[in-house]
Every structure is written in C-alpha cells, then in structure tokens.
Design a protein that fits this description.
By secondary structure, the chain is an alpha/beta fold. It has two domains: 85 residues, Ribosomal protein L30/S12 (60s Ribosomal Protein L30, Chain: A); 150 residues, SPOUT methyltransferase, trefoil knot domain (Alpha/beta knot), CATH 3.40.1280. The protein is 31% helix and 22% strand. It contains nine helices and ten strands. The protein has a six-stranded parallel beta sheet with strand order 7-6-5-9-8-10. Strand 2, helix 4 and strand 3 form a beta-alpha-beta unit. Helix 6 packs parallel to helix 9. The longest helix is centred in the last third of the chain and has 16 residues.
C-alpha cells in the first residue's frame, strides 16, 4: 500500500525547488520507465503487480506494489499507467577533449518544457550525445520535459552551463541560426561542432553572437514569398540537425 507520505513526496517533485533539495525527479508510464530504469539510480518504484511480473529482477531502493487506483493518486499525469519511478538526478561533467570529435547542441534560454523535451528527443534520433543549456533554460527534470523526451534523456547528456564562459573554452566551429544568416543549404557544414538554437521569441542573445563562427538561415519556400515570421525552435532544430547529418553522413 502506498502511504500518504509517499504520495506527498512523489507529488512534491513537481516543484523545481523540491527536486533540487531531494536530488530526485519523476518518470512515469510503461514505455518511459522501461527506457530509463537501467540508466538512472532508482530511489523509489511504484508499480502494479502486472508491471512487476513483466520486469523481474528490476532494481530500486524501494519497490512498492500497488493497485491501479493508487498509481492514479500519486501520478502527476492526466492518464497514468502502471508505473512511477523516482530517480536520482545524475551529474555529468563536460569532456572538452571529446567536443571537437562530435556534433553537439547548445540551447540559449529555451524556456518551454515541451520544446526542451522534444529537442532532447531529436538529439537522440540524430546521434547527438550532448546538449549544453544556458542557466535560463527550462528545467530538464520538470515532469513535462521528462515525459516529452520519450525516454531520450537516458541517452542524451544535458549540461547546464554559463554559455558565454563555455564558448570561451571550446575550440570547435559554432553554428547559429539567424534570420539574416546564410542559406544553410548552400553553406559548408562540418560533421563536428556546436549548433546553437535561441530563445522562442528573441533568438540567440546578443552576448553570444560574437562566439558564432557561422550564421545560418533556414530558408522558406519559395524564396521571397510572404510567410510566417519564424519557426518553432524544436521544428527548426529538427530541420537543421537533419541537414547536418544528411550532409556529413558519409564522413
């Protein structure tokens, strides 16, 4: 049986302050937990007998078998399934030596949790292992962000850094998306480097512009046609990552 204190603990992790104090976050749902249970240290696992029978040998600090209605009482989701996991927040270090050998993403004040989660999922799809977020970005461990990653946070390392100080240390090509940039389809792209994506409303901040070695633009079609002002940042990330990988896949 799930105690009131355990329910209160799980639900309190919806708050960023509590997540940081407890160093824990929540992941919910059969697919989400299936994809992440072996990648994070699990402090608490709340699951139905059906889920536990399908996952023999699963490891957690504490495992509580519950009925479906108890999962609903603790869940932060509108449509809870069979399992809730409380994980320890991992802490990654930045490997500056490996950055020149890979393609990475940097996010400048991306504030919508859904956008952040979708970008992490896209990074996973395109084999991008590291994302560097400004300190003003949405919190990775916000339940909305976690769920929208669809398990990709188990394979993509997200680092929160002061981007200005970070760019002063890196020695790789840095690409940025701008409305006055050069058409990315006619630009030279590298298999290694960092792609910077800006804030939903303001784009890349002025203080980071000096660190951008190549300004890119995603053109609309046909050229010169009156169209929407800009693309959603997650959509733009998908387009630009696809072009980088398409262009460099044979390298």
């Amino acid at each position: 049986m799930l105690s009131k204190n355990k329910i209160k603990f799980i639900q309190s992790l919806e708050q960023k302050k509590v997540r940081r104090e407890m160093n824990c976050f929540v992941a919910e749902g059969n697919k989400m937990v299936n994809d992440t249970i072996r990648s994070f240290e699990c402090k608490l696992l709340v699951a139905t007998s059906v889920w536990l029978e399908d996952h023999p040998g699963v490891e957690a600090g504490e495992i509580i078998e519950v009925a479906q209605d108890e999962v609903k009482k603790a869940s932060l989701q509108k449509s809870p399934q069979d399992v809730i996991a409380v994980y320890r927040i991992p802490h990654y270090s930045v490997d500056f030596d490996s950055l020149p050998k890979q393609l990475s993403l940097a996010l400048d004040t991306v504030q919508d949790p859904g956008n952040l989660g979708t970008i992490i999922r896209l990074a996973d799809w395109y084999g991008i292992e590291n994302i560097f977020c400004s300190l003003e970005c949405a919190d990775l461990y916000n339940p909305k962000t976690v769920q929208s990653t669809m398990g990709a946070l188990a394979r993509v390392k997200v680092h929160y850094v002061n981007l200005k100080e970070f760019f002063e240390k890196v020695k790789v090509p840095v690409y940025g998306t701008f409305l006055d940039g050069r058409n990315m389809y006619s630009s030279e792209l590298s298999a290694q480097g960092i792609i910077v994506m800006g804030n939903e409303g303001n784009g890349i901040s002025k203080e980071l512009e000096p660190y951008i070695s190549q300004r890119l633009f995603i053109p609309n079609y046909p050229e010169g046609r009156k169209t929407t002002e800009s693309l959603n940042v997650a959509v733009a990330t998908a387009i630009i990552c696809s072009e980088f990988r398409r262009r460099t896949v044979s390298l």
